[in-house]
Amino acid sequence: MKGGDRLPWVADGAGPSANNFAPLQAIEWQVRVDGDVSSALRETRAARQLALHKFPWSRQGEQAGLQQNALYLIRPDGHIGLADP
Known about the structure:
This protein has helices at about 40-45, 60-65; strands at about 30-35, 50-55, 70-75, 80-85. By secondary structure, it is α+β, with helices and mostly antiparallel strands. It has a domain at about 25-85. Strands 2-1-3-4 form a 4-stranded mixed beta sheet, covered by helices on one side.
């Protein structure tokens, strides 16, 4: 995945993490991570007042092209503004 790509649909089980498009209902810039979130990222995200959505790392995410523990800055239109491994 790279900047400009549409965030892929990833369905993996039940519960809140099953619908990775649910956070896109908020029309805002947001940060997405599949896997672990570093403390530095948490601090930077908080300083910039961006919503953070953490999803469990999954095989389905990998198959969709997402990278484990990568930061994805999601634009309000649901496209990736920045992908940083």
